[in-house]
Give the backbone structure.
Amino acid sequence: MVYNNFRINFIVRTLLLAGSIFAFFYLFFNTELTMTLVLVGLLIAFQIFAMIHYVDRTNRVLNNFLESIRYSDFTRTFQVESLDSSFDKLKKSFNEVIKDFQEVRAEKEENYYYLQTVIQHIGISLIAYSKDGKVELINNATKKLFQVRSLNNIQALNDFSPELVTKLLSIRHGENTLIRVQEKDELLQLAIYATEFKIHNRTILLTSIKNIQDELEEKEMESWQKLIRVLTHEIMNSITPISSLSSTITMILKDLSGSLKEKNIASEDIETIEEVEGALQTIHKRTDGLLHFVNTYRDLTKIPTPTFSIFPISKLFLNIKGLLSEEMKAKGINCKINIEPNSLELSADEKLIEQVIINLVKNAMQALDTRPEPEIQLNAFLNKRGRITIQVIDNGQGILPNVLDKIFIPFFTTKPQGSGIGLSLSKQILRLHGGNISAYSEPDTMTKFTLTF
C-alpha cells in the first residue's frame, strides 16, 4: 500500500514534469511568449528539484532504516506527521518493523539471561573454551571447584593440576575421562566429559567437570560392607557348629576320662583320651577366637544412625584433650588446639565424631613414640570451599606413600596388634555425616588426617 502510493506519487510528478517540458518546447517553437516561456522553464526546474528532493527524502529514510538494521540500533524511530501521505505511511511501516526487531531482541536477551541463570545454578562445573585454551564461559561451580574469580585461559589451571590442563587441551568430542588430583587437605576425583560444537566458524569445547570422590567412596563402602556381610555370614555358619561340637565332645571326653579313672583302666587309654581332649580344647579356643574376630568386623556394618546436634568444636576438642591428657603428659606430648573462628560450631553426632578423633589422636600418639619434641595439633576451620574442616596433625614418623592409599581399607593394618577396622570405621562414620576423611603424610616429618563436613 505504501509503495503503491509512492509509485502513484512518482508517476504523477513524472507526468506533470513531462507535460511542463512539452509545454516549454511548444511555446519555444510556436510562440513568442517570452515571459510565459521563462515561467514554464522555472516551473520545470522547480519540478525537477522537488522530484529529486522527494526521492532523496525517501532514500534518506530508507538508508537510516537499513543502518538501524545493520548496526542493531532499534532505538531509532521515524516521526510520522500524518498518515495521509505515502511517505508518512512508509515511516509508519519502518517503525513497525523496528518494533518487531525490538521484540525479537528482547526475547533473545530473555532467553540468554535464562540460559545464563540455569548455567550458573548448575552444581556441575562447566567450561566453554576454544582449542587454544581461551575460555569463553565458566559457571559458579567452576569458580568454586578451582577457587578462582575468573578464568581467561585453561593454562591458568596449571597450578591446580598440570595433568588436568593437558587433558582439557587434548580431550575429544564425546570423550569421558577421570583425573585424580591430590591436594594436601583433600583428594579430588574429577570426572570430565567434553562436547564439541561450532559458532561462527569457531570450534568450541564445552566440558563438564564433577568431583565424584564422594560417590566413589560411597560405592566402595557399600562393596566392603556387602563383602563383610557375606564373609561373616559364611564364617559364622561354619564355625558355630564346630565350636558347639568341640565343646560338647570335650565334655563327653572329660566324663569318659573320669569314669575310666574310677574303674582303674589302663593309663595309656586315659592319656590318649586326654590328648584328644587337649586337641579339642585347642580347636574350641581357636573357634571362639574366630567368632570374636567375626563379631568385631560385624561392627563395620552396624554403625548406629547419627543423632545430629549442634555443638561448639572447642568443647569437643577440650573434652578429648582432657580425656587423654594424662597419657599425653606421660609421653611428653604437647597438644595444641587451633580453632578459627573460635565460635565455630558443627552439626553432627558428637559422640561418634568424638570417637573418630580419639582414634586418630591415639594413632598419632603411637606414631610419636621415640620422636623428639612430640606434638599433636587439633585444628578446626572453614576450608577454601566453605566446608567445616577438622585436622589431626602429628610430627611423627609418617606413613609411606605405598601404604597411605590402603589405610582406609578394612582389615588392613601396619600394627602388630592392630585389627584394621579403626580407620575404616572412621571413614564410614564420616560418610554417614555426608563428609569424608583423607590422609596426607610426609615420612619422618608429619602426618595429617583431615575430616571435612
